[in-house]
Amino acid sequence: MMVQAWRKVDFGTGTVTFLDDTQKEDMLQVEYPNGFLLDMGWYQDRYIISIIQDFDWAHPVKRYETADRDQLPALLTKAVCFVEKESQTAEPDRKGISLPPLYLGVD
Asked: Fewer CB atoms near the end CB (10 Å): N or C, the chain?
């Protein structure tokens, strides 16, 4: 069963928020700090692992693909290493924070 292969993967600082062992679009989702997600699903003829930031599904930060189920543990490990590094070094999303203009004392 595929889920057993996934359970061997160390997701590091990630939190598994969704796991389904059936072969379909939504199979696995892991949340990471600073708005990062690792998402895995089956799309027509291949597995796709996407690294998403700030829910920007149209522009994945990184994408891994394979048609071979036996490659999934290695690809997931590679994806986890990437997202761990990116999520730890990324600046938190500050779009919602507005700071007052800096007053320089010049009129």
From this structure: C
Burial class (CB in 10 A: 0-12, 13-18, 19+), 73: middle
Angle (nearest 5°) at CA 101 between 96 and 104: 155
Tens of pLDDT, residue by residue over 12-24, are 999 999 888 777 7
Give CA–CA dist 93/7, Å, rounded. Answer: 30
pTM value? 0.78
